[in-house]
Amino acid sequence: MKELGVFCGTFNPVHWGHLLVAECARDQFKLDTVIFITCGRPPHRRGDLLDGESRHEMVAAALTDNPHFEASRMELDRPGPSYTVDTIEALRASSPAGARLNLIIGGDNLAYLPQWHRAEDLSRLCRFLVAPRMAPVAGNAEAQVQQKVVLPDGFDVAEIASPVVAVSSSEIRNRLRAEQSVLYMVPPAVNSILLARRHYRGSANPHPAGER
C-alpha cells in the first residue's frame, strides 16, 4: 500500500523543526512521499502572516535536498478559506487506488481535532501522525517538558517518535525584526531568502492574513 504523508501549515516561515518532524514521520511510517502544503487563507489565523506566495517560495527552497519531500501550492490556488478536509478530499481523489493519507499535525492540535471543520469526514479519510511538542513548566520560563499525546476517540492516530526542536516560527520572526541571525534555525536556502527579501523586518503585521 502506498503511504503518503501530508503536512499542511502556514510555514510562517518553515524551519528545521518542520523538516525534522516530516523526516522522522517518513522514516518511522515508511511514507513514500511527504507533501508540504502551504496554507493560503487559514480561517483560524489572523495577524502576523506573510503572504502565501512568499511562504511557499521558502517551503519549496527548503525541500530541494530531500527527494521524498514535495512542495504543493494546491491550497494557494484554491479560492476561499483553507480547510484541511477539502485538501484531503482533493488528494484522495488524485492519489493511486488504495493509497493511505497520513496527516502530520502538532501535538497541540490533537485535543481540537473533534472541533475541526467536518471532523467526522476527515477522521474517515486519513490517519493522523502526531508530532510531540514542548510545553513550558509552570513558574519556570527556561524549563520545558514534552507534552504527552492524548488520543481522541474515533480517530486513527499514531505518535511520531521525533526529537523535539525548541524552535518556533514566532521566535524566528521576532529575531528577524530585531535584526538578529536565524541561520541554523532555518535551512540555508530559507535564510538566504529571508535576508534577500527582508521578510518580517517591518511592522508586526506586514501582510494581513488572506493577502496574496
Structure description:
This protein has 212 residues and is an alpha/beta fold. It has a single domain, classed as Rossmann fold. It has 7 helices and 8 strands; from the N terminus they run E-H-E-H-E-H-H-E-H-E-E-E-E-H-H. The protein has helices at 16-28, 52-62, 74-77, 84-94, 119-125, 169-177, 188-197; strands at 3-9, 33-38, 69-72, 100-106, 127-131, 134-137, 140-146, 157-159. It has a 6-stranded parallel sheet with strand order 3-2-1-4-5-8, sandwiched between helices. Helix 2 packs antiparallel against helix 7. It starts with a strand and ends in a 15-residue tail after the last helix. 35% of the residues are buried.
In the CATH hierarchy, what is the class? Alpha Beta
> What name does the CATH topology carry?
Rossmann fold
Query: How much β-strand is present in the residues?
Result: 15-25%
Helicity, in percent? 25-40%
The helix tally amounts to 7
Q: Spans with pLDDT under 50 lasting ≥5 residues?
A: 135-146, 205-212
What integer value in Å does the Rg equal?
A: 17 Å
CATH architecture: 3-Layer(aba) Sandwich
Number of strands: 8
Beginning-to-end CA distance, first to last residue: 37 Å
Structural class from helices and strands?
Answer: alpha/beta
How much is the average pLDDT? 87
The overall number of domains is 1
Can you summarize the main beta sheet? 6 strands, parallel
The ordered H/E elements are: EHEHEHHEHEEEEHH
- CATH homologous superfamily classification: HUPs
Give the overall shape. globular
